[in-house]
Amino acid sequence: MSAVERIDQLSDTRTHWVTKIAGVEREFDAEITEQNTDERIAWKSVDGPNQAGVVTFHRIDDRRSRVTLQLDFDPEGFAEKAGSALGIVEGQIKSDLKKFKEYIENGDGSAVGG
């Protein structure tokens, strides 16, 4: 995923994110607030940019899934606000989500985290 530089798992419920969208890099810690394996994961930031989200995975058949994302964030600064208003952030997120879905569907089936 091009907008997410990396996510480090600090503990069972804490992650450290490094993101870069439209040239703006952000780092923050997030707390996993809900996790149902292969179904749903929710998080909220605990410092840095205000962000909260949930990703759900719906099995369609043996080879296909539906992956949905709900994300709330507060853009900071002119570049982020302009990128959000122009749909650049949404486009980046959709592109990355599509790549992630393809990775999961075409992967070897092994887990990529908790």
Q: Which secondary structure elements does this structure contain, and how are they paired or packed?
A:
Blueprint: E1 4-9, E2 14-21, E3 24-36, E4 40-45, E5 51-59, E6 65-73, H1 77-85, H2 88-106
Antiparallel strand pairs: 1-2, 2-3, 3-4, 4-5, 5-6
Write up what this structure looks like.
- The chain is α+β, with helices and mostly antiparallel strands.
- It has one domain (4-106): START domain (Alpha-D-Glucose-1,6-Bisphosphate, Chain A, domain 4, 2-Layer Sandwich).
- Helices cover 25% and strands 45% of the residues.
- It has a 6-stranded antiparallel sheet with strand order 1-2-3-4-5-6, covered by helices on one side.
- A hairpin with a 2-residue loop joins strand 2 and strand 3 (24-36).
* Span between termini: 18 Å
Count of DSSP H/I helices: 2
* CATH 2nd-level architecture: 2-Layer Sandwich
Shape, please? globular
Overall residue-averaged pLDDT value: 82
CATH topology: Alpha-D-Glucose-1,6-Bisphosphate, Chain A, domain 4
Helix and strand sequence: EEEEEEHH
How many separate domains make up the residues? Answer: 1
Rg of Cα set = 14 Å
Please give the share of residues in helix.
10-25%
Structural class label: alpha+beta
How would a textbook summarize the main sheet? 6 strands, antiparallel
Topology, number of strands: 6
